C-alpha cells in the first residue's frame, strides 16, 4: 500500500511539470518501484521520502533493473553512461557495464514484413533462404542468416518494428527531464545533464539508421589498406533505414577458448592490428569505429581480424583532427603549456582562467609522470581530462567523447588479448602514424591553396591600409596612440619601436603572402587556367611589394636617425 501511494505521489508531481503526452510519470514511477528514488532526488526531479537501497551494490543492481524494464532507449542510456567515468562513480560504472547487450528476440513473423517492405514486397526474389532463428538480437534490431540466389552467405540486420518512434518519444522525454533537472538541481547543472542527453541522443539516433551504417561501412572498406584487417562487403544499393544486408563472416569470436589456441606472438599481433587500424582510421581518414569491444571482431585465417557492427562510427573534421594531433603530441611530451593552448581552442567564451587551467593540467600530468608508462591507465587519463574540462565549462566536441569511449573499449579489448602487455607499448608502435599526419606535405599544400583566396582578399585591402599608415607617418602621428605620463626620451624610443614593429609585421605578412601565392599557384601550374603570363604577373607583383617594403625600411631608418 505504501509503495502504491509513493508511486501515485511521484506521478502527480511530475505530471504537473511535464507535458501530458510524454513518458515522464511512468519513468519516475518505475525508478521509485525499484528503490532508485535517490537518483531522482539528486537530479531535483522529485522531493519527499522514499524507500532507499542502502548498499551501493544493491542500489546499482536496482538501477539496472529499472533501466531494463524501461526498455531499449534506457538500456542504451545505461551503456552510454558506462563509458562516462567523468560523470558517475566507479561502482556504478562497473554495474552499468553488466547491462544486457542481447535481448529476447522477436518472432520471425514480426520481422519478415519489414524485410519484404524494404525489398519491394518480394524478398524471395533476392534470397533462396532466410533462417528464422536469429544469430543475435539487440535492443534496436536482430540479425538473421540468409543465402542469396547467387549462393552467397549474407547476414540481414533488421530493425525492430516501431523502434524509431519509441526511441524518439523516449529521447524527447529525457530532454524535458534534463531541462527540469537543471532548473531544480545544482548537481544536474554541474554535470551538464542537458548536454549529456544531447550527446546520447545524437549517438543513438545515428545508430538507429541502418542506411547510414551501410554508407559508413562502405567508406571504411574503401579506406582500409591494413593487410591484417578485413571489413565485410555490404549491399549499399539495398540498404535502408530498416534493413542492412552484408557479407556473413564465419570467423571465431575473441573468447577464452579461441585465444587459448593462439601463441603470445599471435595475440600481440592482433592487439597491434587493432591499434594500427584504429589509428589509421582516425588520423588518415577521420572516419573511425567508435565501438571496438571484443564482440565486434571475428578472427579469420592467417590471424586476420574482421571488424563488425558500424552503427557507432565517429567522423572528425580537419580542424578537430589537427587539434587532436596537437593534444596527443603535447600529452606524449608531457607539455602542460602546449596542451592548455590546444584545449583552449575549444573555449568559445574566452572567460577561462588560463593560469588556473594550466596548473590543473600540469598537476594531472604530474600524477601520470610519476607512473611508469607501462602502468598508465589511458581510460582514466581521458576521464581526468574530461573532468578538468567540465570543471571549467569547456564544451568537449561530441567526436572527442566518441574517441574517449573508443579508447576505453579498446583498452578492455587489449586487456583480453594481451593482459601482460601494456597498452603504451602497443600504442607506441602507432605514434609514427600521428607524426606522419602532422608532417603531411599534401595536406599542408592543400591548406595553402584553400587559403589563397583569403590571402588575395587581404592583399587587395593592404594598399588602402598602407596608404593610411603612410599618411599618419607623414603627419608625424604615431600609428599606436597612448595616453601615458612618460618623458620625451622614452616616448621617442617607443615611437621608434612602433615604426619598426609596423615594418616587421608588414614584411612578415607579405613574406607569408608571397610564399603562399607561389606554393598555391605553382601547384596549379599544370592546369589550363594557369599560364606563363599569370605566373609572371604574380612574380612581378610579389617583387614590387618586397621592393616597396625595402624602400619603406630605408625611409624609416632615415627618419629615426633624424630624431
Automatic annotation (TrEMBL):
Q: Which GO terms describe its molecular function?
A: ATP binding; protein kinase activity
List where the protein spans the membrane: 499-521, 533-557
> Is Transmembrane there in the keyword field?
yes
Which SUPFAM superfamilies does the record match to this protein?
A: Protein kinase-like (PK-like) (SSF56112)
Pfam families given in the database record: ABC1
Does the entry feature the keyword Transmembrane, yes or no? yes
Q: Which domain of life is it from?
A: Bacteria
Where does the Protein kinase domain start and stop, copy by copy?
Answer: 129-456
Q: Which UniProt keywords are present, listed alphabetically?
A: Membrane, Transmembrane, Transmembrane helix
InterPro entries named in the record: ABC1_dom, Kinase-like_dom_sf, Prot_kinase_dom, UbiB_kinase
**UniProt xrefs under PROSITE patterns:** PROTEIN_KINASE_DOM (PS50011)
Question: Which family, according to UniProt?
Answer: Belongs to the protein kinase superfamily. ADCK protein kinase family.
Full protein name:
Protein kinase domain-containing protein
This chain's source organism reads Brochothrix thermosphacta
Amino acid at each position: 500500500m505504501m509503495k502504491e501511494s509513493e508511486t501515485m505521489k511521484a506521478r502527480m508531481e511530475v505530471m504537473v511539470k511535464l507535458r501530458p503526452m510524454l513518458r515522464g510519470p511512468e519513468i519516475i514511477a518505475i525508478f521509485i518501484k525499484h528503490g532508485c528514488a535517490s537518483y531522482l532526488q539528486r537530479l531535483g526531479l522529485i522531493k519527499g521520502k522514499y524507500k532507499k537501497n542502502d548498499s551501493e551494490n544493491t542500489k546499482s543492481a536496482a538501477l539496472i533493473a529499472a533501466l531494463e524494464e524501461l526498455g531499449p532507449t534506457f538500456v542504451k542510456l545505461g551503456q552510454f553512461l558506462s563509458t562516462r567515468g567523468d560523470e558517475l562513480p566507479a561502482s556504478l560504472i562497473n554495474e552499468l557495464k553488466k547491462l544486457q547487450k542481447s535481448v529476447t528476440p522477436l518472432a520471425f513473423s514480426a520481422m519478415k514484413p519489414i524485410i519484404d517492405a524494404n525489398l519491394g514486397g518480394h524478398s524471395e526474389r533476392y534470397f533462396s533462404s532466410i533462417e528464422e532463428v536469429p544469430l543475435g538480437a539487440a535492443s534496436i534490431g536482430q540479425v538473421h542468416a540468409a543465402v542469396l540466389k547467387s549462393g552467397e552467405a549474407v547476414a540481414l540486420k533488421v530493425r525492430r518494428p516501431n523502434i524509431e518512434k519509441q526511441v524518439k518519444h523516449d529521447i524527447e522525454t529525457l530532454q524535458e527531464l534534463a531541462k527540469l533537472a537543471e532548473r531544480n538541481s545544482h548537481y544536474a547543472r554541474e554535470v551538464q545533464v542537458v548536454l549529456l542527453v544531447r550527446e546520447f541522443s545524437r549517438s543513438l539516433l545515428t545508430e538507429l539508421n541502418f542506411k547510414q551504417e551501410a554508407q559508413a561501412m562502405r567508406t571504411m572498406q574503401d579506406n582500409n589498406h591494413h593487410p591484417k584487417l578485413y571489413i565485410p562487403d555490404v549491399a549499399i544499393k539495398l540498404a535502408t533505414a530498416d534493413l542492412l544486408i552484408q557479407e556473413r563472416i564465419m570467423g571465431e569470436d575473441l573468447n577464452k577458448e579461441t585465444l587459448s589456441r593462439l601463441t603470445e606472438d599471435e595475440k600481440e599481433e592482433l592487439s597491434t592490428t587493432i591499434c594500427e587500424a584504429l589509428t589509421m582510421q582516425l588520423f588518415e581518414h577521420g572516419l573511425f569505429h567508435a565501438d571496438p569491444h571484443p564482440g565486434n571482431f571475428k578472427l579469420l585465417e592467417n590471424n586476420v581480424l574482421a571488424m563488425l557492427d558500424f552503427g557507432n562510427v565517429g567522423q572528425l573534421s580537419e580542424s578537430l583532427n589537427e587539434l587532436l594531433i596537437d593534444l596527443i603530441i603535447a600529452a606524449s611530451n608531457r607539455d602542460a603549456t602546449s596542451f592548455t593552448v590546444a584545449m583552449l581552442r575549444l573555449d568559445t567564451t574566452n572567460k577561462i582562467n588560463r593560469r588556473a587551467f594550466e596548473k590543473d593540467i600540469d598537476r594531472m600530468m604530474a600524477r601520470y609522470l610519476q607512473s611508469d608508462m607501462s602502468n598508465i591507465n589511458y581510460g582514466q587519463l581521458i576521464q581526468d581530462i574530461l573532468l578538468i574540462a567540465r570543471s571549467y565549462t569547456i564544451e568537449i566536441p561530441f567526436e572527442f567523447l566518441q574517441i574517449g569511449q573508443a579508447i576505453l573499449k579498446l583498452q578492455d579489448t587489449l586487456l583480453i588479448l594481451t593482459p601482460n602487455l601494456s597498452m603504451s607499448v602497443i600504442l607506441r608502435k602507432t605514434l609514427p602514424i600521428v607524426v606522419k599526419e602532422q608532417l603531411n606535405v599534401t595536406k599542408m599544400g592543400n591548406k595553402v591553396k584553400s587559403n589563397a583566396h583569403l590571402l588575395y582578399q587581404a592583399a587587395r585591402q593592404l594598399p588602402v591600409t598602407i596608404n593610411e599608415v603612410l599618411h599618419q607617418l607623414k603627419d608625424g602621428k604615431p600609428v599606436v596612440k597612448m595616453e601615458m605620463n612618460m618623458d620625451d626620451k622614452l616616448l621617442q624610443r617607443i615611437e621608434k619601436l612602433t615604426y619598426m614593429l609596423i615594418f616587421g609585421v608588414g614584411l612578415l605578412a607579405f613574406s607569408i603572402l608571397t610564399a603562399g601565392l607561389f606554393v598555391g599557384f605553382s601547384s596549379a601550374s599544370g592546369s589550363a587556367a594557369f599560364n606563363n603570363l599569370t605566373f609572371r604577373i604574380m612574380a612581378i607583383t610579389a617583387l614590387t611589394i618586397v621592393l616597396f617594403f625595402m624602400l619603406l625600411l630605408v625611409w624609416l631608418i632615415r627618419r629615426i636617425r633624424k630624431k
